[in-house]
Amino acid sequence: QNNALLKEIALRKTELQSRSERVDQLEEMIQNQKQALSELKNRISNALLNFEGKGLTVEQRNGKVYVSMENKLLFESGSWAVNSRGREAVEELGKVLAQNPEIAVLIEGHTDTVPYGGNGPLKDNWDLSTKRATSIVTILTENSGIPKDNLTAAGRGEFAPVAPNTTSEGKAKNRRIEVVLTPKLDEINKLLKEDVNNAFLYLKRANL
Fold first, then answer.
1. pTM for this entry
2. What totals of helices (H) and strands (E) does the chain contain, helices first?
3. What interhelical angle do 84-98 and 125-141 show, nearest 10?
């Protein structure tokens, strides 16, 4: 019984040591991701320096980088055609994204609450926001260095405001494109999955 107990203790010590090493590895990977994201944010800010304060902001929060472009930089009222100045900003952003193919890119279109009043194939603000997001994706796909499977276009209409729609200033802030940059977490997810499987085996051996 003593020998069996000693073997069990040795096994548990080995498992604890292995788990501690994996936690350290996971923490290092997360820290590296944070550092890489901060560097990405700085590169984007530098690339878009001429546009910041002119309807464009770059922020890092919640483990992501957000590039917000007000519609006054990109589109005429009711239009989804990107103007020349807006195209220049999107192309500069694309140059940075091409150097970071491990980043997932979500392009969201947003509107204010004023109903869409244009003619043509669009029905409402949701249609307009989607069409505008797709216009940005189209420009980014012209850069062959950006993997197309990294890009996603989404229209959110008037339903994710960043300011009250009760003032003209608030409406202007809500009419925007947001480019949300997220690091792909394949390695971290793989490590977490392995830890879950190991924990399951441990419980199974312990009959818990």
1. 0.78
2. 6, 5
3. 60
